[in-house]
Amino acid sequence: MSSCHVPSSAKRDDKADLVVALAGNANVGKSTLFNQLTGLHQHVGNWPGKTVEKFEGSLVVDGYKIDVIDLPGIYSLSTFSIEELISREHIVLEKPDVVINVVDASVLERNLFFTLQLLELQTPIVIALNMVDLAEDRGLSVDEKKLSEILGVPIVPTIASKGIGVYELIRQAINVAERKTKLRPMNVKYGKDVEERIEKLTELIKNGDLHYPPRFVAVKLLEGDEDIKKKVDKKVVEAAEKFAKEIEEIRGIPVPIVIASERYAIISRIIKESRKILAPSKIGLVEKVDQLLTHKILGYLIMTIVFFSSFYAIFTFGDYVSTILSAAFETLKPSIVNITGEILWEGFFGGFVAGVTLLLPFVLPFYLLLSILEDTGYLPRVAFLLDNVMHKVGLHGKAIIPLIMGYACNVPACYACRIMDTQRERLISAFAVTFIPCAARIIVVYGLVGAFVGIEWAYALLLINLAIIMGMARLAFKVCPGESMGLIIEVPPLRLPTMRVVLTQTWNSIKSIMYVVFPIYIIGGGILAALYSFNVLQPVEELLTPLTVEWLGLPTYAGIPLLFGVVRKEMVIIMPAILFGTTDFVSMFTPLQMLTLAFVAMYYIPCAATFAMLKKEFGWKTACYITAFEVAFAILLGGLFYRSLDALF
Amino acid sequence: MDNSGAGYSEPHRHRHRQRFRGLVSLLELKNGQKGVVTLLQGNKKVIHRLSELGIVPNTVVEVINSIPFGGPVEVLVRGSRLAIGRDVAKGILLRVEEDGK
């Protein structure tokens, strides 16, 4: 979209594009605003770091077709994290016509820290002063006119979740893009000692061919920004290092802290003039609940209850609905004798029925509960509670967020590992995530073990799994080189889940399952039935017998479902259900075999989609290593598991 | 790696106790107690990140919650709530004034 240099009159005539980027701190409502603007359903949730990639949407307003980019939330324009680099490069290289800086009015100071850096980037901005309702509840009254005067930037108060102020915001954004605003952005000035050196450095840089404004580059060079260092002349870097040393000698603290301190000093002055602290109106109950949730004893008790009752609810609800649905489909079953009918009914329709009766009843409550947990802001609190536990395995509290998400599906969970601060921590968490039994694997565990061996065995498998995850993360921590950072996470305000948000998120997840996964069941089921009818699969099963029958003690026909399970884990039980035309697995497996099959299915390979995500995030080699390790691990442990239980029974 | 100079060595409990008399680490504050950030120690990147989040010298930090047995502390700083792990928190050194302010 390079139309930004076209004169404004020409723009209106051919309805040319404006590109608007949303930028700001994590968890300030950028994605919510994005959804309001574009009518899309970008993932939202009450924890910092959900959006780790930029998303695009568009809208037409007042005759303008506007492209909107939702950038990941960041606290600074340094390049410690992928998100920061994505956001910075987007703003500088793609040059959006205007950046909407979404600011949380209730945490104004820290949010303005980012705003000052945007000003230094000399990019045209409009501020969305979001969550003004929350700020008022906390007794914080922001004088947006005053703030706008000081910063020299148009400011629009918004409540993105309710759509308040959104239209005005976009109109202001158009104004800024069209250069119709009279405001002149404030210059960020540092102390004399720093300022002198910034100016000298700026002179040196000026001749260089950079996309960044020279002054911004000068500040970043003094801060020691590795990415910027690569972009400028070696001489300039040397000069910057010399200046940085001088500043450090004068101030006695490293330059990044000098710069941060000065920015915060500027912000304090701005805040003094533009914000009043009144008496908070709505504190009490929520704070009390919050204190309980992160209490050093009760917090853990509540957490255990929350997670245990979640699983209990999922199992109970799933079982109940699944039974009703199975019975309903049973009555539909016609008596077919010819082979084509067999393939059609048992295969294609069987795949559909298995999906409806096994997948939906369990997956639906999973996603619903996860959406609720995300929306309330409970996840960062769990990160707080479990920080020390995660330290034992070389991670820290933040990793708990992707791990919990992994229980619904490993794929977005691997992706969420981007919230970790270093590559090493990302890799260790993603590796641990692949051991988390996702909803699909839980279905296998429940469908086989919970339903036919005993629910206590299902829970036992899940508890053993927790120990294995810990062990595996610890192992990865030992093997994997690199650096680790400690826990530093913002704790967002606790709130009641919004029904609309929770339902939309759940529906989005379920929708993608219906469109993507159901066809796999139906086609997979059809193919399987056809192959069986023509005796094609028996040789494959025979080939697998040393593994399935000899080592794992499973029946011969367990081989094919395990192969299908590579695509989706729940295929491990959906395939036998199709073959035998029933979900009553007692006729197919002994209890011991059910336990072993469920155990193996939990670990034996990351499913195809997870593999693809691992490849995307860490490359082929890592994805293959992880896969190979898990295949070997599951086979080895599966055999030992079978033998030790065999001895017990 | 990444240890910056100028008194910013890897935090070492006993050593810094002697070197910075009168300062306490964030870990030593009780719930509800406030302190003024005076010195930051530890990994360069961690310090930089903390400073971006508003934990810079002369900032008032209040501990609002903490988890025993090596757990993190939760602090209120510049109107925002941050959970900070032990390893990080022990490098944040503060001056505590008499009346706890």
Helix-strand layout with pairing:
The complex is a heterodimer of chains A (649) and B (101).
Chain A lengths: L7 H6 L3 E8 L5 H9 L16 E7 L2 E7 L11 H13 L3 E7 L3 H13 L4 E6 L1 H6 L2 E3 L1 H8 L3 E3 L8 H12 L14 H14 L8 H10 L2 H6 L2 H18 L3 H20 E3 L7 H9 L4 H35 L6 H38 L1 H8 L1 H6 L7 H7 L3 H7 L6 H11 L5 H14 L2 H25 L8 E3 L8 H35 L4 H14 L7 H6 L6 H10 L10 H13 L4 H11 L1 H29 L1
Helix pairs in contact in A: 4-12, 6-12, 8-9, 8-11, 9-11, 14-15, 15-21, 15-23, 15-26, 18-19, 19-20, 19-28, 20-22, 21-22, 21-27, 23-26, 27-29, 28-29
Chain B lengths: L12 H7 L3 E3 L8 E7 L3 H9 L7 E7 L6 E5 L2 E5 L1 H4 L2 E4 L6
What does this protein structure show overall?
The complex is a heterodimer of chains A (649) and B (101). Chain A has helices spanning 8-13, 30-38, 82-94, 108-120, 132-137, 144-151, 166-177, 192-205, 214-223, 226-231, 234-251, 255-274, 285-293, 298-332, 339-376, 378-385, 387-392, 400-406, 410-416, 423-433, 439-452, 455-479, 499-533, 538-551, 559-564, 571-580, 591-603, 608-618, 620-648; strands at residues 17-24, 55-61, 64-70, 98-104, 125-130, 140-142, 155-157, 275-277, 488-490. With 649 residues, chain A is α/β, with parallel strands linked by helices. Chain A folds into 3 domains: 3-177, P-loop containing nucleotide triphosphate hydrolases (Rossmann fold, 3-Layer(aba) Sandwich), CATH 3.40.50.300; 192-277, Helix Hairpins; 298-493 and 506-648, no CATH class. In chain A, the strands form 2 sheets. A 6-stranded mixed beta sheet of chain A has the order 2-3-1-4-5-7, sandwiched between helices. A two-stranded antiparallel sheet of chain A has the order 6-8. In chain A, helix 4 links the parallel strand 4 and strand 5. The longest helix of chain A has 38 residues, at 339-376. Chain B is an alpha+beta fold and 101 residues long. Chain B has one domain (13-95): SH3 type barrels (Roll), CATH 2.30.30.90. Helix content of chain B is 20%, strand content 31%. Chain B has 3 helices and 6 strands. A 6-stranded antiparallel beta sheet of chain B has the order 1-6-2-3-4-5. In chain B, a hairpin with a 6-residue loop joins strand 3 (60-66) and strand 4 (73-77). The longest helix of chain B is centred in the middle third of the chain and has 9 residues, at 44-52. At the A-B interface, helix 4, helix 12, helix 16, helix 17 and strand 9 of A face helix 2, strand 5 and helix 3 of B. Strand 9 (488-490) of chain A pairs antiparallel with strand 5 (80-84) of chain B, so a sheet runs across the interface.
